[in-house]
Amino acid sequence: ADDYNGELRVMLYSGDFVAANLGGSLDLDLKYGKAKMGNVEKAKLNIYDSKVNMGNLSQARVDSKYSEFVLGNVSGDMKLQTYDEKWQVGNVGGKLTLDDKYSEFKFEDIGEVEMSVFDADFVMENVGKMEILDTKYSKYKLENIALLKISSSFDDDFKIKAAEHAGTGDSKYSEYHIG
Question: Would you state the pLDDT for residue 1?
């Protein structure tokens, strides 16, 4: 059961936000703080230099810098615009859209990913479809991937245990280890 059902808008500077399960939508603007929540139906997060810990989500849209995130599973889509972050996420059932610089990510299973990244590190378990539009100076460690499509790669390191289909477009100075 949800502890709060409805729209919730929170703007917090240098403080803590603690909530149980949120059945409606959460719009959180947090700077220099901490947030800890249970499950959240729909989240829109604008986070700066903070720590966020959340349970499961239906969908999420995040714009953040210099922060740390620990999330449960996201059953739907997730859109991230991030800078110099640390992320740990369970499964993403929908599509993950990512635009990032200088971050570290750890995901379990992801249905679909579309990303542009610069100097990022990734650890992913199982990925259905991954489309990398642009990547530079990044490291990827993937267990299993069904389809990998890379449009542009520059000085990246890919370590992939198993891939069904993989293809690259423009790739310079990158290393690929498959198997």
Answer: 59
